[in-house]
Design brief:
alpha/beta, three-stranded parallel sheet, two-stranded antiparallel ribbon, 8 helices, 5 strands, 44% helix, 16% strand
Length: 174
């Protein structure tokens, strides 16, 4: 965690009071399914795990959040989000929350050699790199021609200005 839960709540409350909207990004990434709607997070010195409730994170970001849930069975958290959003609206609070679930309640994340383990998050956060990887895996010139499919290490070596141009182009197309 870059910020404590108290700091996240403070940022959210200040956003509401001041009338400006800075999104609070809560990005949950795990190789396993949520455990009883709890997550375990390393503390700042990375020496101990602390148990946190998803409910607390949702409540802390419900007024200005962008939550990315990238784990197996991510959709199993949908009902928790739905009930907390309804509860917040019922008591008159503004709700301004975007949530992206990587897969359904009973689904596992896709896994493929050569692609990042956090493929869903990568599509959202580094779309140019993922587009290049998929392009190289699926087009004839990379399969049967003189070119070879790219790998994530090759993509990481591409200069940022080129990736930025590709990202801008993708945003204009989509």
């Amino acid at each position: 965690l870059k910020n404590s839960l108290d700091e996240i709540e403070k940022i959210s409350n200040e956003n509401v009071k001041e009338g400006f909207k800075n999104r609070v990004l809560f990005h949950f990434l795990s190789c396993s399914a949520p455990n009883n709607n709890n997550i375990f997070v390393l503390n700042a010195d990375k020496k101990a795990l602390h148990k946190f409730s998803f409910e607390n994170f949702i409540k802390a970001t419900i007024t200005c959040g962008l939550n990315i849930i990238d784990c197996d069975c991510a959709g199993s958290l949908f009902q928790l989000y739905s009930s907390l959003i309804t509860e917040s609206r019922d008591i008159g609070n503004d709700v301004d929350l975007f949530v992206f679930f990587a897969c359904g309640a009973n689904e596992n994340l896709p896994v493929s050699p050569g692609l990042p383990m956090n493929l869903f998050s990568a599509c959202l956060t580094i779309p140019a790199k993922i587009a290049l990887l998929f392009h190289s895996f699926h087009y004839y010139c990379f399969k049967n021609g003189p070119l070879h499919p790219l790998n994530s290490e090759t993509i990481d070596d591409i200069p940022n200005d080129i990736l930025e141009e590709i990202t801008v182009t993708l945003h204009n197309i989509v």
